[in-house]
Design a protein that fits this description.
Two copies of one chain form a homodimer. Chain A is mainly α and 247 residues long. Chain A contains twelve helices and no strands. Chain A has helices spanning 7-21, 27-33, 39-66, 70-84, 92-102, 107-112, 118-133, 136-141, 149-163, 173-196, 200-228, 243-246. Chain A is globular, with a radius of gyration of 18 Å. Chain A binds chain B through residues 20-21, 25, 27, 118-119, 121-123, 125-126, 129, 211-212, 214-216, 218-219, 222-223, 225-227, 230-231, 233, 235-237, and chain B through 20-21, 25, 27, 118-119, 121-123, 125-126, 129, 211-212, 214-216, 218-219, 222-223, 225-227, 230-231, 233, 235-237.
Chain lengths: 247, 247
């Protein structure tokens, strides 16, 4: 068990977890933005990552169910608006589907999750279950990977635009909105956590929650890397190039 | 949706899933029993697989909570007895710990799950959640991977004994009991499923449950293979050789 940390020491400890465990350190991230992947490997990433995106508003709705304070819910619900948009054809999820469109996937196939890696499903469901089952403080703390996402988004967009002729500023539009949204969301969650993690036990639980979430994101890249890059062994039933046209 | 199958056609369809998706087809299995792994890779397997073993009686207890028929529960509870034993030092879980003992792991370390791959945790938890959340028929059907386990156990024990000087008949004692237990358990579950899956919808749900369970087992080997064999990239915080002595 850690000893009590001041709020700013807690922030330092949280940022240190990101510095050691955030998926920007995963070899797949380097390959993705460094132009080392072929188009089908980028497609596998976009397809599997869709399921994570699709469950984010479900995860945030789950967090809303844990909040019995209208002022908190008013702030948190903005995350759902960001992902789901205000009308058909709007929102972050739609923009992710524009990316999978541009990579040649039929929408029905993407939305069906038919070709998803089972490990993607298990990791994302672990995240949704975590925010359902753990105390609200931990559920909020698990969102703090967004503290580290502006950097990874900038690297990813710049690198992908430079490296791949099959992506464009337009097809990567998802990330434009996320830069400002993630900073705003992370600032709020960080202040909440610093204010409410008032004992060493609660502070440890907050650090553990962020570690857990880093594990989720890392596992997603592990699964994609294993199935489609090295050694490149998709499990039975998972998407292989062309499967999206036969289903 | 499938059309209605006779009970024996349903059995054939279930066995066909095993023939295509059971983890005996995973490259890691071939390497394990073919003597292609080094001791640390076998250790990684035993360590991660412990968590699966440890959650099996929890999974079976969850299934008991879904059964409102004493005669069914009397049969199913034997699975918990087999894993937990009738006294300290007895049972399948204890025998698995004798395997991890013989591979040089402190018991406390194994039981703590401190070095577990996150993907192992997520897959095993997905299995426990499945039997909690799905209809009893599907929960029982998900156990049907045991139909295929006598073959894999025979291959594994014979191959490991032949290939590795660091395992012995005694340290593999876990598998001795499982040969007869798995056949008995699978026979019962198969008859239950054949008798109760009386519509095409229920039959499809049973086939899907077995597919799901094959995905769980395959994911476990994927995660171990990725972290410790190829490319060999353990995620941050996961066991690396020696970590069990420093914790």
């Amino acid at each position: 068990m850690i000893s009590w940390l001041s709020p700013s020491e807690l922030e330092t400890a949280l940022r240190d977890i990101g510095g050691r465990r955030y998926h920007s350190l995963h070899p797949f991230h380097g390959m993705l933005h460094g132009g080392k992947l072929n188009r089908d490997q980028v497609r596998a990433w976009a397809l599997n990552r869709y399921y994570y995106q699709a469950m984010i508003p479900v995860k945030d709705a789950m967090i809303l169910t844990r909040m019995n304070d209208a002022s908190l819910r008013r702030i948190w619900r903005q995350r759902i608006v960001d992902h789901d948009g205000t009308s058909e054809g709007d929102g972050g999820l739609e923009r992710w589907l524009q990316l999978t469109d541009s990579l040649g996937f039929p929408r029905d196939y993407v939305i069906s999750n038919a070709g998803l890696l089972p490990a993607t499903r298990f990791a994302v469901e672990a995240y949704v279950n975590f925010v359902r089952d753990r105390p609200l403080l931990e559920a909020i703390a698990s969102s703090l990977t967004e503290l580290f996402s502006p950097n990874i988004i900038s690297e990813r967009v710049a690198g992908m635009l430079k490296s791949y002729d099959f992506v464009s500023r337009e097809t990567l539009a998802y990330f434009d909105g996320r830069l400002s949204q993630a900073s705003r969301d992370a600032d709020f969650a960080l202040e909440y956590v610093k204010h409410n993690a008032t004992t060493p036990q609660l502070q440890q639980s907050v650090l553990d929650a962020l570690t857990f979430k880093c594990d989720v994101l890392w596992s997603l890249l592990d699964a994609i890397h294993h199935a489609y890059v090295s050694p490149g062994l998709p499990p039975p039933g998972a998407w292989i190039p062309g499967a999206e046209l036969r289903s």
